[in-house]
Amino acid sequence: MAMQSAGPGVKRVKQTAPHIHEEAPPGAKEEDDEESLDRISRLPDDILGEIVSLLPTKEGARTQTLASRWSHLWRTAPLNLDCRDLPADDDGILLGAFLSAHEGPVHRLCLPSRHLRDRAAAVDGWLRSPTLDNLQALEFYLDTPVRYGSFMHSPPASIFRFSSTLRAATIAQCHIPDNAVEMLRFPQLQKLELVEAKISEGSLASLITSGCPALESLLLKTCGSFHIRGLRINSPTLKFIGVFSMFVELIIEDAPSLERLLHIILHVKMRLTVTSAPKLEMLGYISEYADSKMTFGSTSIQDLRIDSLTTVVRTIKTLAIHSNFNLHMVIDLMRCFPCLENLYMKIPKSTAGVANSWRRKHRDFLTSHDIRLKTIFLGYYQGIRAHVDFVTFFVLNAKALESIRLEVGSRDYNERYFAEQHSVLQMEKRDSRGARLCFKTPCDYDAPHVMHVGDLDSPDPFACGC
User: What's the rounded Cα separation, in Å, for the pair 437 and 402?
Assistant: First the structure.
C-alpha cells in the first residue's frame, strides 16, 4: 500500500508485513543448539586446557560449573597453582586437595615461605606428588617480614627431583648451606630469584657457575638482615642481573652474554668492576650521593665523575643515574659511553640545581662527538634555570632525539605549564624535528620497576608511562 502524506501534527505509521509462523525444517533444532554454544566452548580441548591453566587457581576450578563442556577440563589441564589465589586462612588444605584430585600436570607451584617453617613435612609431601613430575616453575614467596636472628630452614630435599625440568625458581627466607649448594644441580634453570636468602658469597658464585649452567636471569633481593656483600660473576649464559641490596660489590669477570645490570635501590653505595662484558647495554641506577664507583678496564668513574678516561665503553645504550641535573657531568659520561641512546636521571626533590651555563668544553664536545640520545627522562624537573639550561642543551643539539619526558610536581601538571615549558625550552628550535616533549607526575616507586625475576627483561624497567 502506498503511503500518503500526513498532515501537520499527524504521526506517520509504518505498515509492516503480517507475522507468518513457519515450522522449522528437520535437523534445525540440533543446528541451533550447536550455534548456541559460545565460540570459546567450541574450541578443541587442548586449547581450552591452556586457557584454564592461565587462570588464577580458584577461577580455574570454577570453570567446572560453566557447562558440562568444561567440567572435565580442570581435572586434566596443566595448572599454575598459586597459594596467593587461595583463601587467606587456608593452611594448605585446599592445595593438598588440588594436588590429590588433579589428573593433569602442574607446571608452576607458588608456596608461602612460612610453610617451610610451619609445615615443612607437608611441603615435602606436596613436592613429591606425581602431578608435579614435570614442574617448570617453583616459588617460595616471602609472605611475612624477616626478623633479625630468626631461624631459617633449608629448602626441602624433595626439590632436587625437579633438576631435569625446573626452569624458574624463587627461594625466599631460606638458609642454603655450603654443603647443600654442592648438591644443587639444575641444568635447565633459566631464572633464579633469591629473596632474603642466607647463602655465602662463595656458594652463590658456585651456584651460578656450576649449579645452574643455563642461567639467564638472576635477581638478588637482600634488603633486610642478610646482605650479600660481594659477588664475582663468571657465567657464559647470564643475560640479566638485578641487585636489591643495601651494599654490594659486583665484579663482572667474564660474562659474554650479559646485557643488563640493574641496581634497584637508589641511595646506596655501588661498587662495580667490569672486566669482560662485551654485550652490556643497560646499566643503572648509579648514585652520585653514595660513594659509588664504577671501573671499566682502566677507566674509573667515582660518584659519576670521570677519574680517568682511558677506555670508552661503546656497548652501553641505556644509563640510569641518581644525580643532580649536572650538564658537565653528563657530557663527561657521554664521552665514556659514546653510543648512549637512553638517559634516565632522578634527583632529590630538595635540590637547588647547579649552574649549567655552556662553556667552551661543551662546544668542543659538540664538534667532536655526535649526541646519539633518543630518550631523556628527567625527574624531578622543577623548571628552574639550571634545569632549563640542562634540557635546552639537548633540545638544540641532539639530532636523533625522539622523546623528552619530564616528571613534574602535581601543581605543575596542567596545560598552561606545559605550554610555558614548551616555549622556555625552545622546542620550536629543536634540532630533531620529531622530538616530543611530554610530562608526567611523580611515581610512588622511584627505583626500576622490577618486582620479580621475570621483570628483568621488561622493555623499559626505568620509566613509568607518560
Answer: 9
Summary mean pLDDT of the chain: 82
Question: Rounded distance, CA 97 to CA 405, Å?
Answer: 51
**64-99: pLDDT as tens digits:** 777 777 777 777 777 888 888 777 666 677 777 778
Contact 219, 244 (CB under 8 A): yes
Question: How far is the C-alpha of 141 from the C-alpha of 221, rounded, in Å?
Answer: 12
Q: How big is the CA angle at 391 (ends 390 and 397), to the nearest 5 degrees?
A: 100
Rounded CA gap, 76 and 96, in Å?
16
Helix axes 120-127, 93-101, angle to 10 degrees: 20
Which cell numbers hold the place of 179? 654443603
In the sheet that holds 270-274, the strands lie side by side as 230-234, 248-254, 270-274, 293-296, 299-302, 305-308
Contact 455, 327 (CB under 8 A): no
The band of 9, judged by pLDDT with boundaries at 50, 70 and 90, is very low
What is the C-alpha to C-alpha distance for residues 67 and 73, in angstroms, rounded to an integer?
11
362-384 burial by CB neighbour count: b if 16+ within 10 A, else e? eeebeeeeebbbbbbbbbbbbbe
Burial of 13 (0-12, 13-18, 19+ CB in 10 A): exposed
Look up residue 150 and give its amino acid.
S
C-alpha 294/C-alpha 302 separation (Å) is 7
Q: pLDDT category, 15, cuts 50, 70, 90?
A: very low
Residue with cell 682511558: 310
**pLDDT by residue (tens digit) across 238-286?**
999 998 876 678 899 999 999 999 987 766 777 899 999 999 999 988 8
Cα–Cα dist 387/375, whole Å: 17
